[in-house]
Task: structure prediction
Amino acid sequence: MRLAEELGGEVISADSIQIYRKFDIGSGKPTTAELARARHHLIDAIDPDEAMDAARWAELADRLIADVRQRGCVPIICGGTFLWVRALLFGLAEAPPANDRIRQRHQSLVDTEGRDALHAELARVDSLCAERLAPNDFVRVSRALEVFELTGIPMSEWQQRHGFREPRHRARLIGLARGRDELDGRIGARVDAMFAAGWIEEVRRLVTEGYADARPMRSVGYRQILEALRAEGPLDPELRDKVYRATRVFARRQRTWLRDQPVCWIDPREIASTGLRGLAFRD
Result:
């Protein structure tokens, strides 16, 4: 929002949960006051049971970027879901379309034997891809295995052929540099604030409205709360800590992905004294 204010920009969300309506607290959507500071796009854009993937999001983002630029503003992609950002910047590897029959079979395997079993299947046929994906990342693990089952070619080989070297947009990647201890503390405070804001009640309401099996319910935090609500007896007293630990693991994967990207890291302490304009676009 500071960057949007200083550069005359508009924010395009790249968050795969904020894009869904009704999933508000656990996705950390901007508040009404924050939305008033800068125009935002692709937040509350689709219903929870609507399909969304990297390719479709990139198409929507492409149109918005053109529209924002046409109005003389700076498009600022914010978030979150790095596969989506990569799809926007470099496109996606050519691969066969989704196959519902295969995906249903993968879901059945997970329901009976757990996500580790599906991840083990992927590791057997595509060890490189399996190393990059966490066992809990059902959507991407299933997709990688699906591609191999349909083509006989590992997803890692499809991606290697693509190369992801020709950018579709001129862009500068910007990140806030925080130490691990500080980041862990901020994650803990964020989780506590979400629970205090009524996160458990939000999940209960979503289940009542029929969204227990919606894709965003599989995300970090929502998944742990849903599992706790489905268990018999009192609510798990360790629920907050489980969400905190899962979020830390997710953040660690994000840091690993960013390690190999050309990110311009900004020390938050510098922002107060220098502003963002010079920091964000220096070489």
Remarks:
- The chain has a mean pLDDT of 90.
- The chain has two domains: 2-91+165-281, 100-162.
